[in-house]
Amino acid sequence: MVLICNSGNAGDYSCGNIGSIVRYNISIGDGIRPKETRQGMFSPSIHIAGPVKQTLVERNIIHANLKPSDIIDRTMITSDSWDGYADNTCFRQNIYYAAEPSRFDFTSSTRNAFEENIYIGQFKNLPESPKNKKAENFYTEKVLKESADGYKGLHCLMDSIKVKEHTLHYIKPEAIKAFFQSIF
Q1: 159 alpha carbon, distance to own chain's centre
Q2: Helix, strand or coil for residue 166?
Q3: Whole-prediction pTM
């Protein structure tokens, strides 16, 4: 889950969250919380909470696979209150893929902008955006035809390193930049 947050109750000991940039990330199968929170079954792929300002979410891949249970949240993005709401969030040139119906929930956040995003799947409250069939076809050919879960198709954008018997994967900057340049 991508989390962009700021407590509106933090007082003067916090500078807040202003001007954050979330760029060139890959989220595959995130947003799976199998237990209830104070908000119920809550686990959006992207969660924006509190009075964050002037945030840019750009050129990320959010690949939401089938959830293992019917009760798990299927929301793509939730922007809600943490003693305040987000203002001036721009979502630009992101890829949102949902294997099953999903939704966007911006509650009382203000001035959300959407520019050239790609939406593959079924979504409720989908931000208005012209279809980009070239980009949808590119993602289908390069990723979904390799493996519907996204791992095999997106693996070429990542590298790995061993740390104490664990394999950690990270984004190859040149590869993901070239991937997005092929689309936009």
Answers
A1: 20
A2: strand
A3: 0.91
Residues near 114 by beta carbon (within 8 Å), at least 6 away in sequence: 90, 91, 92, 127, 128, 129
Please report, in tens digits, the pLDDT of each residue of the chain (184 residues total).
778 988 888 777 777 889 999 999 999 977 665 666 556 556 789 999 999 999 999 999 999 999 888 877 889 999 999 999 999 999 999 999 999 999 999 999 999 999 999 999 999 999 887 788 889 999 999 999 999 999 999 999 999 999 999 999 999 999 999 999 999 8
Distance, in Å, from the CA atom of 6 to the CA atom of 142, rounded to the nearest integer, reads 36
DSSP three-state, residue 164: coil
In order, the DSSP letters of 90-145 are EEES-EEEESS-EEEE-TT-EEEEEES-EEES-EESPPP----HHHHHHHIIIIIT
Q: State the Cα–Cα distance between residues 3 and 80, nearest whole angstrom.
A: 12
Q: Which among 48, 104, 33, 50 is positioned nearest to 75, based on CA atoms?
A: 104
Q: Domain locations in the chain? A: 2-183
The first and second tokens of residue 167, run together, are 């394999």
Please provide residue 19's backbone torsions phi and psi, each rounded to the nearest 5 degrees.
75, 25
- The sheet with strand 53-58 has its strands ordered as 21-23, 53-58, 87-92, 110-115
- How many C-beta atoms lie closer than 10 Å to residue 44's C-beta? 26
